[in-house]
Amino acid sequence: MNPVAVALIGGFCISEALYNNFIGLQSKKNPDFQNHTALFTGMIGCLAVSMLFVASYFSGGMELTSDWWVPVLITGGLIGGYLYAEVKAFSIGDVSLVAPIASTTPASIILASMIILGEMPSRMGWLGICFVVTGTYIVNIQGYFEQRNSEGYVRRWRDWLVPLLMLKKSVAIRYAYLCVIIATIAINYEAMAVRRANVAFATACIFGIGTIINLAIAYRGGITRKSIGSLMNRYTLVVAICLFFSVWLPNLAFRYEIVPYVGALKRFQILLTIILAYWIMGEKKNFKSRFVGACIMVAGLVLIVSG
User: Fold this and answer.
1) How distant, in Å, are the alpha carbons of 55, 194, 200, 245, 300 from that of 58?
2) Cα–Cα distance, 298 to 307 (Å, whole number)
3) Distance (Å, whole) CA 207 – CA 202
4) Do the Cβ atoms of 274 and 109 come closer than 8 Å?
5) I need a surface site. Which of 54, 273, 284, 290 has the fewest CB within 10 A?
């Protein structure tokens, strides 16, 4: 695997792990945060998109090719649909059941990449991606196990398959799978977009659309000076900077490596998030089980890189 792509994904993993934990700190410091998530997302989106436009100016300009705007609009529209489906899934469903479903995305990306871009991983890459999917699922399902343990239930083997078995019964689960489908398609068109224009410029356009959607949602819910003031702090700025690197670096990696590898390696940030959450947030529940899942992901990472 291309070493430049590995380094870029490594930078993404660090910034994404910091991004996740600083959002957690923002939520803890601001009791009203949950009521203004769309506004917060819009604010950090504006800051990150501004940084991306500046980065595009200093990295060669727009560098547009023919039909560059087509994948940008497709990706932006898909991201808008993804945001709606994600919010819907988490608002009407159990987070501990919805979250594990996202772990299947790297596997579905392979099929979509073969169809849309004609990109195919090696045999070692296939095996590595399977390890990443398994490890991610183990990490994410721990939230459901914590809930079951607190209610006094004894764990059964069927509990490992609950997010799959609930597909027919739960609307939230169906929305979660819709998120997977949208993300699977979007990442391929996103790769196409950043290969047809300056990476920072194309990324700014794509996430600019998502930011506008979030601000529209926030406006519909009502924006006040108090709500804006409660979010104007150093954590918001840090999160915005982390978001800038989290969307720019992996898109740069698309210039050096195929989509299935980039999509799978991005899951490595979960390991760093777990470790940082342990030290920064003091989240120690099921740490050993989560860490085991993360180690399986690392094994997959090694296979992908060596393949």
Assistant:
1) 5, 16, 10, 15, 36
2) 14
3) 9
4) no
5) 284
